[in-house]
Model the fold of this input.
Amino acid sequence: LESYLAKNGFDNKILFGLHFDEVAVGPFGKEPYRRLDVLGDGVNQAAIVANGKQRSNFVVTPQVFRALQAETRKHFHKFTPPIVYTAP
Done:
């Protein structure tokens, strides 16, 4: 998909961030802008883990990793970013 988009003038990188949590799913908005959407902290967490700072474009949270079968877990490596401290 990335190569197809690049050939058509789109500069991007596809990232997948997966998180396991409760969310709200349903049609939101008034017509003609009504659309299916997914809302909740779980959606935000998935977006945060897919921020592009990892060495992969397929990232799962610990909640997803723990739900995987042992054979599937072998395909993943733990990534721990450096700890930083910020002041308000």
Strands lie at 16-18, 24-28, 35-39, 58-60. The chain has a mean pLDDT of 85. DSSP finds four helices and four strands in the chain.
